[in-house]
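[SOLVED] Predicted holo structure with zinc ion

Edit: marking solved, answer below. Original request kept for reference. I posted the sequence and ligand SMILES and asked for the 3D complex as structure tokens.
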Amino acid sequence: MAPLETTPTIRARMSRQRSRDTDIEMALRRSLHAAGLRYRVHRRPLKGVRREADILFGPARVAVFVDGCFWHGCPEHSTWPRNNADFWREKIEKNRARDRDTDSRLAEAGWASVRVWEHEAAAAAAERISVLVRDRRRPA
Ligand SMILES: [Zn+2]
């Protein structure tokens, strides 16, 4: 593994990414709960696929992923670290490819995936998710 740049900024980014139950995730869960929705957290939507969704609506088949701006290459916050730029770029590109792969596997299995950026307002994201979940619950 390449030597990592370990400025406080990078360390903060890394720790933010690795932690579960981030602020946005908790705020999102509170809003969804307040909207009367029930869900499970940190589960794999598909058996045999090692991808964990942050929030899951089983009957509606909706999987929510809260993506960290740095690690998933948010277009609004795409500041690339200068040191070890190739190393970071490769890592972030790999994450993005993995995200796309997860989404297509879920779609193939009849799931909808919702991606929420870490920087988004939780209330707006919760609204978007509620609409989708209720819509998918409706009998065809
Ligand atoms: Zn962002």
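OP edit: The pocket of zinc ion is lined by residues 69, 74, 76-77, 117-119 (CB under 6 Å). Thanks to everyone who chimed in.
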